[in-house]
Amino acid sequence: MSFTQQTNQGVVFHTADAFSAAGGIAHGFATRIGGVSKPPFDQLNLGMTRRDDPQDVLENYRRFCAALGTDVEHLVMTHQVHQDTILEAKPEHVLEALLEPIGYDTDGLMTDIPGLCLTIYYADCIPVLLYDPVKRAIAAVHSGWRGTSLGIAPQAVQKLAARYGSDPHDILVAIGPGIGPCCFETHDDVPTAMAERLGEGVQPFCQPLPNGKFSVDLKGILRWELTQAGVPDENIDTLPPGAVLVPPQDGRPARQPRGDDPTAVSFPHSVSLF
Fold first, then answer.
1. Residue 245 falls within a domain, yes or no?
2. Is 113 part of any domain?
3. If I label 54, which of 29, 191, 201, 222 is the partner at 20 to 30 A Cα–Cα?
4. pTM of the model as a whole
C-alpha cells in the first residue's frame, strides 16, 4: 500500500492507493493548499474555532468537498474530546448549517450509508480511515495519545464487525499525517498510561531519551493495535513523514501548527461511500 498526492481544482490532498484501487469510495487527507483563508490561517483552514473568517472557512469546505467529489450537504462532523466514542453516522447527523454547533461528542464515526461523508479533524493527533470494500462500510477515527491508549482504532474494527458483519481481514486502513517519534517527546506519564492499558507490547514504541523523557511512536502503536485486532499488516498503510504540504510564509515554509494554538489550522480527513 502507498499514498498518492492529488491536486483537483487547485486543492492538494492525499489518498490511499488501496482505497482507490478497491473503488466505491471518495476520501482524502487535506493539506493547507487550495483554500482562501488569509494569514495566519492560509490557505485551506477547515477549523471552525480558530478565529478565521467563517465565510472563508465555508468556501474552503466547498472547495475541499468538490475536490473529493462530495459536497457540504453530506458532511457528518465531530466534536472531538480525546476519548474512544465512535458514533454510527446517519442522515440526521448532517448539520443543517455547516457552522452550527455539533450536538454530540465523539472521536470516531462509522457508517454503511452511501453518500454520507465522515469528517475527522487533526493537527498533531493521528487520523485513521478504515474501509471494508466487501461489506461497504467505513469508519474514521481521531487518535491522539489518549485515544490510542484507549484503543479507539481497534474498537473501530470491532464495531465494523459487530454492526456490519465486517471481517477484519477485509478491512483496509490508512493512517494519515500526525506527530511522529522524532517530535513527540513526553514525560513517563504517557508511556505508563500506554503500558497500563495496552500491555508490554507497546514498549518498543516508547523509547527513553538521554534527557529523561520518552519518544513515542503513535503510528507504530496504532499499527500494532490494528494487527492485534485482526487486520493484516499488509492492509495497513501510513502516510510517510513530510508528506503534508503547507504554504510558504515570507519565503520560508510555514510551521506545522499545534492543535491547541488558537491561530492553528485544522486539517480534516474525510471518507464517503458512493
1. yes
2. yes
3. 29
4. 0.90
